[in-house]
């Protein structure tokens, strides 16, 4: 009962009680709820993935791999923002990484919320989590 009174008082005063929100990341990335729980998504709501064969700050998804797993692109002049960093790919293009892990979408995800890439390549691909 006391909690309800305090909450009502705070709301009346214009103070909202909310869980800490994930700050929107670069390139419009944010968090969405999927079948795997909270997942990083791009500005279109498409699931972002990480690849076990990447090293911190370096993408090993090149050539044919990159056709199926497009990198989350970063502008040439983009800079780090907290847990978000920019890496340079082997072709010289820039890619966003979260906590050191390069981020990708998957071409077979057809709509926001799809997670069809999770666990592929003998478990090497994972939904990216905040």
TrEMBL record:
Residues 1-23 form the signal peptide. Transmembrane segments: none annotated. Keywords: Signal. The keyword Signal applies. InterPro entries: Lipoprotein_repeat (IPR005297), UCP029720 (IPR014558). One of its GO terms (biological process) is alkane catabolic process. Pfam families: Lipoprotein_15. It comes from the Bacteria. This is Lipoprotein with Yx(FWY)xxD motif. It comes from Nitrospirillum viridazoti CBAmc.
């Amino acid at each position: 009962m006391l909690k309800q009174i305090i909450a009502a008082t705070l709301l009346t005063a214009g103070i909202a009680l909310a869980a800490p929100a994930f700050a929107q990341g670069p390139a419009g990335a944010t968090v969405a709820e999927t079948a795997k729980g909270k997942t990083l998504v791009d500005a279109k709501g498409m699931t972002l993935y990480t690849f076990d064969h990447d090293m911190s700050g370096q993408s090993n998804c090149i050539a044919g791999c990159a056709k199926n797993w497009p990198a989350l692109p970063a502008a040439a002049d983009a800079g780090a923002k907290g847990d978000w960093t920019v890496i340079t790919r082997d072709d010289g293009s820039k890619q966003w990484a979260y906590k050191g892990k390069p981020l990708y979408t998957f071409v077979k995800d057809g709509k926001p919320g799809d997670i069809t890439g999770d666990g592929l390549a003998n478990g090497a691909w994972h939904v990216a989590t905040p």
